[in-house]
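User: Can you predict the 3D structure for this chain?
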Amino acid sequence: MSEFTPQANLTRPKPAAAESATAGHPEGWLAMLRSAVVLFLIMTVLTGIIYPLVVTAIAQMVFPWQANGSLINHAGQHVLSDRQAVGSALIGQYFNQPWYFWPRPSATSPMPYNAAASGGSNTGPTNPALVKNVAARIAVLQAADPGNKQPVPVDLVTSSGSGLDPEESIAAAYYQIPRIARLRHIAPAKLKAMVNNYIVGRSLGILGERTVNVLELNLALNRKYPY
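Assistant: Here is the predicted structure, written as structure tokens:
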């Protein structure tokens, strides 16, 4: 008669408590925290210090005038210091005297062409406020030049989306020629020729429309035909 002896189980399961203690060991959490802090500091130095400094240095070397605000002086020359500047070629300026070219309206507050509060009026074509504002602007243009019976260009009575648009359409500049020519005692043909000299072409030759920079045009007007 044979005897049967059960084989001993040599593989013992690892206690669940031991697994849990290993996964939640304080040294593991500290290692992960250390890695996160180091990565945060590296990315802060790269993207918050090194990258801005490199980009700024390249801009100052390659196109310093644009990088410093595209400033111009009374002579229409590009300058780098705001002490010599009368304005920026990229930000509209407020002209309301009738012997100057008027830019398109600005809806920024608390004053027109406020570069710190860029934005439009957000009034749609069916908004009564827009209709009222357009009618009031047309009345101002007609009061300044009663003899002008030409259709009023739309950009002279509607504000831009940014409120800082430094340019206006060629039609808007042409519309104002009779008023300025009369007040400055200039032949309209000469004034039209000056406007043509300050026409800005399309971006890349195909994007947008041809326009006129109002500040540069008014500065040239003061130099050539002082009021």
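The beta strands are 71-72, 78-79, 87-88, 167-169, 199-200, 211-213. The mean pLDDT is 87.
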